[in-house]
């Protein structure tokens, strides 16, 4: 008889991003190089595509797979972009954004100090996914953030 298991694995967060990419091998290499991702699982398909892979970025899970149109698993490149963005906290947002650009990402919003206490910018990876790279610079209360947002005209 098998042991009872938790329906929610203890090493996964409440919501785990699952990215679909045209070239999963290249995406894994990009995420390893730029974000320090660690590959923890890979299921290769017989056609050279990746059926499923799991990475960890700063200990948090990220799943991805190659496109499989027969299952409506389509990449942003195929459908013309994605409205979803992923935020990743890194030690140095400027250095991470620069490294991402060197490896084929496009900077869509330059890294800058933000009213909410982070230094952050936005990039689009070579596979069409949007990433917000941030480094926390100040620990602010919600009142301080709201006051700064109002002063900046951002709310």
From TrEMBL:
Taxonomy, superkingdom: Bacteria
CDD domains linked: VOC_like (cd07246)
Name under which the protein is recorded: VOC family protein
Pfam families: Glyoxalase
Domain VOC, residue spans: 11-136
InterPro entries to which the protein is assigned, alphabetical: Glyas_Bleomycin-R_OHBP_Dase, Glyas_Fos-R_dOase_dom, VOC_core
